[in-house]
Amino acid sequence: MKEHVGVIGAGSWATALAALLAKKGRRVIMYARRPELAEEINITRENSRYLPGVAIHPNIEVTVDLERAFRKARVVVFGVPSHAFREVVRQSRPFLKNDTIYVNTAKGIEETSLSSMSAVFAQEAGTELLQKYAGLSGPSHAEEVGRELPTAVVAASYRLETAEYVQELFMSDRFRVYTNPDVLGVELGGALKNIIALGTGIAEGLSFGDNTKAALMTRGLAEITRLGVIMGANPLTFAGLAGVGDLIVTCTSMHSRNRRAGIAIGKGSSVEEALELVDMVVEGVRTTRAAHQLSARYAVEMPITDQIYKVLFEGLAPGTAVNNLMSRGRTREMEEVAKMTVKLLNNN
Ligand SMILES: NC(=O)C1=CN([C@@H]2O[C@H](COP(=O)(O)OP(=O)(O)OC[C@H]3O[C@@H](n4cnc5c(N)ncnc54)[C@H](O)[C@@H]3O)[C@@H](O)[C@H]2O)C=CC1
Ligand SMILES: O=C(CO)COP(=O)(O)O
């Protein structure tokens, strides 16, 4: 019998991962909230709203019955946006089993609790299931995975066996999966890069050049690392696929919803207009609010995040935000993170 995989959500990323798993011979039961979407995919064998042009493999069935997606599954992949993750895990609680593996693919930080996705999972599913939990992250646009273009990502879990199981599940000659035990670092890298992609998008919308984008990406990574290290992540994770890798793809690809929303804002759209234009989840907007609070909680300087927060939520003109960043006081490039890293290593 084919191994069953449940996929929760039927957006772009859920559909691309379902396609990959179905092609690898898994029987995929994909849960969609809306009956119209489930019906359309089952009948037309295409998800024209979220991933047009990718054929839905015969091994995939879409259901609106959440329990059915869990029933025979050895592994369940959550593919809903981060703001829906808690609610979806809570609804799934009656169907969770100790011998199932759970994979989260959402990239965000919960705005109200400032919890990472693994923390949300533990709060809703119980800490004992955390050993069965992995986060899948890295530079991976659904549109390219759907077209089977070579991609490399990270499966992060506290338990090596779980990470290796997820690695084996997804690994193909077009989709390479590395394991990493730094769950928090992988989650923070995937979430926080979306803020910087909004920022580089804004810079593009303002007609700034490649120098500006490179500066935002590099200094953006510095502040992501600063926050991550103080929260307990491994600094090296930010030099990996879930850190700089995802930052590069999100800041440079036209597939990125965060980048496209940023471009619209830079060109003068309001946040609401930009979100309407993109019409799919733009995780960076909520994540900016969360990161703004985290930088205050941990007393970590995050100047780029701070200016993007002001543009998104306080009506600051994007051009003024750039001037504010360029006219900051002089500072050193490396010493702060280096000092924090040495302190961390000494404490371990
Ligand atoms: N699209 C991409 O290339 C990638 C996306 N991700 C992450 O995956 C997550 C999902 O993103 P996308 O698939 O792109 O979003 P999307 O906007 O394409 O689709 C989101 C889907 O989730 C559904 N949904 C929302 N709330 C729900 C709920 N409460 N219950 C059930 N379904 C619900 C929506 O109806 C929609 O079908 C995000 O956190 C994103 O950062 C990660 C890697 C790649
Ligand atoms: O995380 C992603 C690619 O790795 C997707 O980025 P966007 O959400 O900006 O499209």
TrEMBL record:
Keyword Transmembrane helix included in the entry's annotation: no
Compartments, as annotated in UniProt: Cytoplasm
Primary location class: cytoplasm
Residue stretches making up the Glycerol-3-phosphate dehydrogenase NAD-dependent C-terminal domain: 182-322
GO molecular function: glycerol-3-phosphate dehydrogenase [NAD(P)+] activity; NAD binding
List of residues binding sn-glycerol 3-phosphate: K107, G138, S140, K193, D246, S256, R257, N258
Annotated ranges, domain Glycerol-3-phosphate dehydrogenase NAD-dependent N-terminal: 5-161
Pathway this chain belongs to: Membrane lipid metabolism; glycerophospholipid metabolism
PROSITE patterns from the UniProt entry: NAD_G3PDH (PS00957)
GO terms for cellular component: cytosol
EC number: 1.1.1.94
Listed GO biological process terms: carbohydrate metabolic process; glycerol-3-phosphate biosynthetic process; glycerol-3-phosphate catabolic process; glycerophospholipid metabolic process; phospholipid biosynthetic process
Top-level taxon: Bacteria
Positions bound to NAD(+): A142, R257
Annotated SUPFAM superfamilies: 6-phosphogluconate dehydrogenase C-terminal domain-like, NAD(P)-binding Rossmann-fold domains
Binding of substrate, residues: K107, R257, N258
Active site as annotated: K193 (proton acceptor)
Keywords: Cytoplasm, Lipid biosynthesis, Lipid metabolism, NAD, NADP, Nucleotide-binding, Oxidoreductase, Phospholipid biosynthesis, Phospholipid metabolism
Catalytic activity from the UniProt record: sn-glycerol 3-phosphate + NAD(+) = dihydroxyacetone phosphate + NADH + H(+); sn-glycerol 3-phosphate + NADP(+) = dihydroxyacetone phosphate + NADPH + H(+)
Keyword Nucleotide-binding on entry: yes
Pfam family, one: NAD_Gly3P_dh_N
NCBIfam families in UniProt: PRK00094.1-2, PRK00094.1-3, PRK00094.1-4
Family according to the record: Belongs to the NAD-dependent glycerol-3-phosphate dehydrogenase family.
Role noted for this protein: Catalyzes the reduction of the glycolytic intermediate dihydroxyacetone phosphate (DHAP) to sn-glycerol 3-phosphate (G3P), the key precursor for phospholipid synthesis.
Protein name per the record: Glycerol-3-phosphate dehydrogenase [NAD(P)+]
Gene that produces this protein: gpsA
